[in-house]
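G., the chain you wanted modeled:
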Amino acid sequence: MPMKFAFMCLMPRILVSFLFSSLLGLSHLAFAQSVSADVNPEAATGKVSKQLVKAQHFMAASAHPLATEAGRQILAEGGSAVDAAIAMQMVLGLVEPQSSGLGGGAFMLAFDARQKRLQSYDGRETAPAAARPDRFMQGQRPIRFMDAVNSGKAVGTPGLLRMLELAHQRHGKLPWARLFDPAIKLAEQGFAITPRLHAQIAGNKDLFAQDAARAYFYPDGVAPAVGVRLVNKAYAEVLRRIAREGVDAFYQGEIAADIVAAVAAHARPGDLSLQDLAGYRAKVREPVCSNINIYRLCGMGPPSSGGIAVLQMLGMLQQHGLADMQPGSLEAVHYFAEAGRLAFADRERYVADPDFITVPVQGMLDPVYLNNRGALIDSRLSMGTAQAGDLPRNLLARGRDNAPDLPSTTHMVAVDRAGNAISMTSTIEFEFGSKIFVRGFLLNNQLTDFSLTPVDKDGQPVANRLEAGKRPRSSMAPMIVMEAGKPYLLAGSPGGSAIINFVAKTLIGVLDWKLDVQQAIDLPNMGSRNKETELERGTALEKYASDLRRMGHLVGHRSL
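Predicted structure as C-alpha cells:
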C-alpha cells in the first residue's frame, strides 16, 4: 500500500494535505516499477506511517524531503507560496525525475490573500503544429501503446516553465534567480539515490534503451545502488541559464534546438519544432467551483477533468446522507464507486481542451443536474457501466475516448506568512516520460493523454482527439477548499486517472466525516473509473468483495 501523508497548517486553520506515493523521508522504502497504465501512482512495496504535522506561520509539502526543505528555506526568507513552489519543482525535477520536470507540464491553483482571489494557471503541454488526429494510428487500429509512449511522437511542447514564469510575475516576492539556488547546489553536489528511484531505474528497460538516459541513470551499466550520490551537472547548467536569462533560455536558442534534435533523432521520431517551443504560452483560467455545505470547493478546470469530476462526485453524494455513513463501510464503498462511474462517464464524453471544443462546465456542475445524476444510484445494485448525462443534446454525438491517463505525477502545496496559498500538480506523463533525455532532464510523453483513436467505435468524433496546438485532457486535480473566503484545505495527489478518486475520498473524509487530514488520507483507497470497482489491496476493504459482487460490482484488487 502506498505511503500517505498530510500536514496541517494553523495560519489560521488551513489544512494542507495530499495523498502521496513517493519517498517523503530517507527511510528505506522500496517501490517497484509498474508498466500498467492502471496502477496509480506507481506500485508500492511498503508503507511509512505519518502523523499530523502543525505549523504556525508557513508550510510547504512535496514529494521529497529535499524539495520540501527548499520550499521551507524560501518561505523562511519571506518568499511567497509561488516562490516556494518554483524552488520545490526545480528540486523535484532532479531527485524525482520519473514523475515531473522541465520537460513536462503542470496545473496550479493560487490564492492571493491581498486580493482575496483564487486563480488557476494552465501549463499543460500542447501538440506540435504538425500533429494530426491519426498520429498514433496504423491503418484502422492504434499502434502498440508502449510504442506510442516511448517515442518522439508522444512529446508535446513543455509548459511547466512558462507557467511558473507567469505565476511568479503575478505572485512572486523573491528574485527569480534565487529560487533556483537549492536545485543547482544539489545537482552539482549530488543527491542520494532513494530506494524508490533505484527500483524504478532498475526496472525500466525502456529508459536503459535510450543512449543519453542510459549514460546518466546507469553510469556503470546498472542502476546506482541506494544511497549512491547522483550528480547532474548538465541540469545545473540549464537551471543556471534559466535563472540568469529567464525561461526564454529554455524555449529559444541552444536548449530548444537540442530538445527538437533529440525528438527528431528518436527511432520513432517526432515533429516538435523550434516554432512550437518559441510559441508556447501558459494560460490563466478561472477555477471550477461548487458550494457544498459551508465550504466552497475549487479545482482546476478544462483541459483538466480532475476538478470537475471531484466536484461532481461530492455533489452527487450529498443527497445520500454521506455524512452519516461509516467511513470504510460497505455502504460508503458502494455509493462512492457509483458516483465515480457517473463522473467518469461525463468526463470521457465532454471534457477536452476548451480552446478547441465547448465543455459544458456549468451544466456538469449544476446542482439540479448533479441531484438527478446522483438519484441514479441504487442503494442495492451497481449500475455497471454508467452512461454520460443528458447535457445539451448536440454534445451527445461526441465519442467516448480511450486515453489511459498514465500515473507518474507529483504534487506540492505551500502557504506563506501572508496567507497566500498554492496547490500544484505537475507531470511528465508515464514513468520517466518518453525516456528522451536532454541536457539533464527528460521530455514528456504527454500526447498519449489524447485519445489514441480520433473517433470511437461508432464513428463519432472524440472530444479529446489529438489536434495541432491542442492540450490533452488531464486528470490532475489540485484543489483549494475555501471557508468564509479563506483557504481551509489544500489538497491534491499524484497518479493517473485515479487521482480523482484519491482526492474525492480525502475531501469526503475531512469535510463530511470530520476526520483530521491524516486520518482521511489513511482511509483505504477505493472507487470506480467506470470500469471495475477498485479496492486497495491488503486493506480492510477487501472483505467486502463478495458483498459487492452480489450487488453487481465487478471487483478488482489494486495497489492503489
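The longest helix spans residues 330-350.

Shout if anything looks off.
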